Amino acid sequence: MTLFHPVREGEVTRAIVGSFLRQFEEYVDSDVIIVGGGPSGLIAGRELGRAGLKVLIIERNNYLGGGFWIGGYFMNKLTLRAPAQEILDELGVPYSMASEGLYVTDAPHVCSKLIGATCDAGVKFLSLTLLEDLVVREDNRVAGVVINCSWYGSCYCLWATTYGTHLWRHASLRKASC
User: Fold this and answer.
1) Pairing of strands 142-147, 150-159
2) I need a surface site. Which of 71, 101, 107, 145 has the fewest CB within 10 A?
3) Which domains does the chain have, with CATH numbers?
4) How far apart are alpha carbons 164 and 51 in whole angstroms?
5) Are 152 and 144 spatial neighbours (Cβ–Cβ below 8 Å)?
6) Angstrom distance (rounded) from CA 6 to CA 119
7) Cα separation of 11 and 162, whole Å?
8) Model pTM?
9) What is the per-residue pLDDT across 13-24, written as a single tens digit (0 to 9) for each?
10) Angle between helix 39-50 and 107-120 (nearest 10)
11) Beta-bridge partner residues of 29
12) How far apart are CA 146 and CA 132, in angstroms?
């Protein structure tokens, strides 16, 4: 008895590679490139995507969410201070008040909902992708990033990680010549 529809391995490979390459080509030019797929990058990406911008998030890990998944003290609980609980309300994540202005919730629940909401906003991701360098124009404006020896162009580059901060001395969040 066959459990799944029979598909050849070559078809699987072509589907994955073809879909990835089409997206890669489409996002070579993005409105915004966000470096870091942790909570800050996901929130920024979601908001910018909702505003209609073409957003690409670059993440060096093989997962999104950064340390968000594990919460505080590796106990899978997450605390937020007011008014950040409003984000939980938007995402539909339950929480409880720990004390006035302090809220606690399940970190994996928040992280998974935030990743989903970011995807729903049209944001695309490159995981396992290392930031190599910034593309800086003559007038010191950031025009893109170099990742794993490939160039991506962007009108804006938003730093949402502590990784690669040595490159930040070359740039600030400025509009590039698009």
Assistant:
1) antiparallel
2) 101
3) 29-161 (3.50.50.60)
4) 27
5) yes
6) 30
7) 39
8) 0.82
9) 999 999 999 999
10) 30
11) 153
12) 5
